[in-house]
Predict the structure of RidA family protein.
Amino acid sequence: MAKEIIHTDKAPAAIGAYSQAVKAGDTVYLSGQIPLDPVTMTVVEGGFAAEAHQVFKNLKAVCEAAGGSLDQIVKLNAFLTDLSNFATFNEVMSQYMSQPFPARAAIGVASLPKGVQVEADAVMVLGN
């Protein structure tokens, strides 16, 4: 099966040896998104909620570039540097995705790139 590299200027450019997403068949594997503004490539300000919103905006842009939407995500992994922000993450997520929600893991981590508080990656299946 051939793989297709997904790229959009509406999400931050990859800052390492990875692609924003890879499509294999009807499945799209989205790389982790941190709260970078895609224009300035700087971390958004405003605390955890602002960071979480930017993460979902970035994921949305990559989903759309692949021909899908956030509601086609079947698995989401959330990485939080402080699990006390879990409720806020849930609240923000519910503003971008509707029920039925995807399967999900929330993982507490010691640190994330650029000192951000949240990162999320996902798997999307097109046509569902």
The mean pLDDT is 97. Residues 2 and 67 are 17 Å apart (CA to CA). The chain is about 25% helix and 30% strand. The beta strands are 3-6, 21-24, 27-33, 73-80, 103-108, 118-125.
